[in-house]
Amino acid sequence: MDIEQPTTTAAGIDPGPAKVLGPGHDYGTVTDKIGGVVFMPFTKTPRQLFIGFACGFVLANVFLLAITWLFIRGVGIWGIRIPIAWGFAIVNFVWWIGIGHAGTLISAILLLLKQDWRTSINRFSEAMTLFAVACAAMFPILHLGRPWLAYWLLPYPSTMWLWPQPRSPLIWDVFAVSTYATVSLLFWFTGLIPDLATMRDKARGPVARTIYGLLAMGWRGSARHWSRYQKAYLLLAGLSTPLVVSVHSVVSFDFAIAILPGWHTTIFPPYFVAGAIYSGFAMVLSLAIPVRRWYHLEDLITMRHIECMAKVMLGTGLIVAYGYGMEAFIAWYSGNQYERFMYMNRAWLGHYWWTFVLLILCNILIPQALWSHRVRMNVRAVFAISLVVNVGMWLERFVIVVTSLERDFLPSSWNRYYPSVWDWATYFGTIGVFLSLMFLFIRGLPAISIFEMREVVHHLVHPEEPSPAHGD
Amino acid sequence: MGTTINFDELRRRLTEGSGTRYWRGFEEVADTPEFRAFVEDEFPNRTPDWNSPSSRRRFLTLMGASLAFAGASACTKQPKEVIVPYVRQPEEYVPGKAMFYASAFCRAGIAKGVLVESHLGRPTKVEGNPDHPESLGATDIDMQASVLTLYDPDRSQTVTHDGGISVWGSMITALASAREEAGLKKGAGFRILSGTVTSPTLAAQIQEFLTAFPEARWHQWEPCGALAEYRGSVAAFGAPLNTLYHFDRASRIVSLDADFLYWTTPGSLRYMRDYSTSRRKAAESGTAEAPRLYVAESTPSITGGMAEHRFRMRAGEVEAFAAALARELKMDAPGGAHPVSSVAAIAKDLDSHRGAGMVIAGAFQPPRVHAIAHAMNQVLGNAGKTVTYTDRVEANPADQLASLTELVQDMRSGAVSALLILGGNPVYDAPADLGFLGAMQKVKTRFHAGLYSNETAAWCQWHVPEAHYLESWSDARAWDGTVSIIQPLIEPIYGGKTFHDVMNVLLNHGDRSSHDTVSGYWRARRGTPDFDDYWRISLHDGVIAGTAFPEKTPPAAKIPAPSPAPARGLEVVFRPDPTIGDGAFSNNSWLQELPKQQNTMTWDNAVWMSPKTAQSLQANTGDTVQLTLDGRSVKGPVWVQAGQADDSITIHFGYGRTRAGRVANRIGFNAYALRTGSAPWHSPGVAVSRVSGGYSFATRQIAQTMEERDPFRVATFGEYHKDPGFARPEEKRVEEQTTLFPILEYRGYKWGMSIDLTACTGCEACMVACQAENNIAIVGKEEVAKGRHMNWIRVDRYFSGPLDDPEIYYQPVPCMHCEYAHCELVCPVAATVHSAEGLNEMVYNRCVGTRYCSNNCPYKVRRFNFYLYSDWNTRSLYGVRNPDVTVRSRGVMEKCSYCIQRISRAKIEAEKQDRQVRDGEILTACQQACPAQAIVFGDLNDPKSELTRRAGQKRKYALLEELNTRPRTTYLARLRNPNPDLEKG
Questions:
Q1: Among all residues of chain A, which has the CA nearest to that of B699?
Q2: Cβ within 8 Å, pair A145-B890
Q3: pLDDT single digits (tens) B182-199
Q4: How many CB atoms lie within 10 A of CB B928?
């Protein structure tokens, strides 16, 4: 029995101009719509989901193959060399971590900022965050020369009394990423609990009921539960908020602390955080737009959502553009021979100049189309731009990591970087892992927060009441 | 507790019953409570029991337990291994402490004195012998790499007969019957072919054989030997003489294509020492004048790199240039055209330094150039001062080409019935027009003795593995005649035989050992009374005192008539490879992976041509071309080489091997296939046609120039005197102690290194020495191409100036051991740390391989094991490794440690004697090998150390000083002494 279903007076509500919900929904339809995705029989599951999952799964197996070979032979199978000792692994790490930023930002910061449009995308983006962070976290381990000793980066009391070396930003990374992953997981899971209870109650088979029941941890929806739940959720949101800024700042220190021209840049922390949010929103859009279409969720993820996300992308994209500009300006203004050369090399002297041109195109020029309301309201256009931004942000990391290393101080050690087939296999492999996990999540758990959507309905029905989940 | 144990009962249980079968039931017995108690007593926390009064009893119980365990371990089968005892127990033997033995390394028959480091009876490293007149403690790349050849798994390992495995006894029988057969005809038809022989003992043996069999003949052939010098000397003086050069006395040097710093030149180590020392002294004193070097050459060489004035010309034009120089000196030397416009200025410079000048003719120039050089030296009064003459060091000086030609003709005519080849590889390296192989196949019985079962061995019925010089007793002469005794460090690993052994069979002395042969020869020379002392001292010193040849005064040199002017058009120049040489050591991977000095290429030879020539031939680097000369042709890839003379292409020997071993087989192309006896070093009239493109080389360095960063700083002496601080320009200077952090203090030792670029010639001996000392792995061509080579010290090469004729600079770069080391900052696991003495230390077993240290190293001196590069599988290579240095595994970073094992060794010695480490007590491997003495290591806290003295000079600078890394390795800028009349601009 659905114990927490409040009674509604009207058969449907009018969402009004805010349009965070399609017309004609009430508590029941919202629940059915979202829960229906999970309880949909296999025969009715959209074919695209199977195809998507199959693609992801194949790529995930490519990943398995790539890392098996990696463990057998060593990191030499990649294109890294001296002096380009970091390559795709670090590029991918930063890219995935960046993508993993949108979830927490949407869940925590937008929650605290009372952005009502966050509700239907937060669960989805939190899951994306988790999976992206999982993909990201694999790379620092895989890229080690001796990955079986990765635990030496953790501060544990070894018999030799050896501790990690705290001045190294890689150690800061370990803490930043693991903290972020833990808090993101908790936040996501906490958010899921009331919905898991709904799923438990709606589940027909005993297996599903048991699994959802276990995961719901005895949620009954009592007033006391809700009161504590909301406090906990708010606390977690507060905890996550600084992490959104800290993680990518710390990741940027991996570069900013180094002496290498092109890395040794004070603008990196804010510019990396903006870039992370930029790519994170791009990835949310790239995933949400097709899923919305396949499951006919246009009522729940409305054009308002898409437009808001496009605006955030435009805004953070401009911050990133400012970062590029400052890099160029400082390279010139510093008068430092190596800095100047680095920028020239990056932009047109080096053999990877075209990646820089593509990056400017993808990250700065093309997204300017989002200034137009017409473009923002065009789902296909927004989808295309989000893909372009994803590519662009990957290129940005490539340019930073590779072109800076290719030509540093002494010309005698200059070299060129060429990724190997295993670099590509590992990169696309993690995309496969990510997609597989995402599709499994969509199929097995409510991808949109049911209870929060019901709150939205409630809020629309009773506009005079403040929304308790919004922390007032 | 101990009182409850009945040891006798247990022993009874274990021993009674039906004998050994009960050992398998050990656990049954051990499971008794008594035994458990025994086991407990083995634990360290029970050791206080040792102090108890009943310790005798306890001792017995523990003994019982260990006996029981011994029984258990006896059940496992021990691996079967052969233990080789010492032939002679070394004296003063301390396990873990290296012993050094004097011996001599021979290249093309000429000895270079070595001290060989031996660990547990296995030689691991070759150092120069300070008492040897050429080495003076230094080594070249070939000497350093020779220890790897000793352990080469591809060395010939067994006597073979018709390709099948045979035994030495059978070969003795075959040799004896060949001798008997020849003996019927006084030896007619029996021929011996050797390389250059300087060994007095071997020569005496061969002579003894020839005396017994007067119709037998001894032929000699050395593919890159002293043919031109021999002929030049005969042409000039009517007798073969040996020329010695004294660079310490020369202030004006003209090299006529003479690469006297190059390791294949006999005496090069001494020449480099003398030449670089006088340059260095001049730079240090500020008053003495540095030697000024003029070089005329076709192919860029390291000697050309040191030249104040380098004249690019076709090799065939050097003769005309030499003649023109002679004419300027009022000598009668007709000659043709040459491209140098400033001959008068050079002549004037030489003329104003009479007795202190020197003209050297290259070993690869025709005899007339040698004759002109001899004549000029006499006219200028240099002969007897900077240039001296002695008898030739070969035991049997001969025109080797004529000697080989005679052999081939006799073989072809069927006059040869038995041929004994002592070393060498004539099937591979004989002049192509002789048709050596075809002729040799007409010989009924063919014997080959050599280190490798090479191309020649393949065509001989009998082959016997030659003992490596580190396994042999022998003797040989240095370039000045000094004799060294070669003594073995190890039993022949593959049962090799020395040439003395082979000759002893022919002399019917089959039971006489090499040792007895060599010592017997010298005993006969010396006489008996004090021979043992004499022998021992000679062995210990590595040289036999007083055996250097006395100086001779030759008659006035005659200049022969000029050879016809070379045809215009392309010429092809043949040279031994910069790292591989003539091909005898092709299978040495250290040398294969050593970058060629001029273009940092590894694992390949190429067709070198100048940019202009490449343009006119429409060829580019990586294009494969076919070279055709006199109807013979080879195919090879093009390398466009800056500094190469126009219309002159150079190809190098040593590649294109088919039976060298797994390292050298099927790499490169065989340049010998084009070489003829009539034009052994350069020949006009070569046709070049492009075949295909797309060949890729593995070079160490991609960037060619310094890109306005000036890591290599250079000035003329005049500029230096005007502005002594030129090497530290304002914009690159960092004030002392610019830091926010507390200043690090070094109270004890403060290790540092100084590299003098005025002295350094770029010979790369340091790189191989470091490789041998520090167990540095080889990665192979593909990995080098990716930039993953492992050398801890590299020699950077920069071009400066015009594309076609640039100056070439060499700069050795080891770890800088920065005081503010950026690598240390970023290592997450503290695997690279700073020592109290300022060393930047690398802890391999702590390294997890993030490679961040390498990214953050501005000098990029760190090397990473991307794969398991160290060969952990080839057992024979275990022997070559230095036991004081870890063999690195996959996934760890490594780099120069300033030879920390040597520092520790010296510190332990010093601590034992309660004193400070003395200056010069620690020599790093690179420093020890350096023939130019460009590298000095020492304590910066010692105000009297050589390092402090050198690093106190005004021309000192630190690489990338502006980054405030405070490197401990610093450089001394190069100073040049150009001729003001010639200096451009």
A1: A415
A2: yes
A3: 888 888 889 999 999 999
A4: 24
